[in-house]
Amino acid sequence: MTQLEHIQTEIVSLSKHDIIKLKDWIDAKDWDDWDKQIEADSAAGKLDFLKREALAAKSKGTLKEL
Fold it and tell me: pLDDT in tens for each of the 66 residues of the chain?
């Protein structure tokens, strides 16, 4: 049995309440990982093109205010 199969077996045995808590934890971890990736990409300059596009749109008068 693989580690994943073992985890899946354990999840099936959880109460509905604990499954919801686990799902919430996984969702929070996923968002945290996403935030860290965005921060790393920004620090590495990988998102600079977005700033350039926004500034170009602003200078053309086509930038929409949020």
Answer: 999 999 999 999 999 999 999 999 999 999 999 999 999 999 999 999 999 999 999 999 998 888
CA distances from 5 to 24, 27, 61 (A): 21, 20, 55
**DSSP characters over 6-63:** HHHHHHHTS-HHHHHHHHHHHHHHHHHHHHHHHHHHHHTTTTHHHHHHHHHHHHHT-P
The DSSP call for residue 27 is: H
The structure's pTM equals 0.68
Cα(8)–Cα(61) distance, integer angstroms: 53
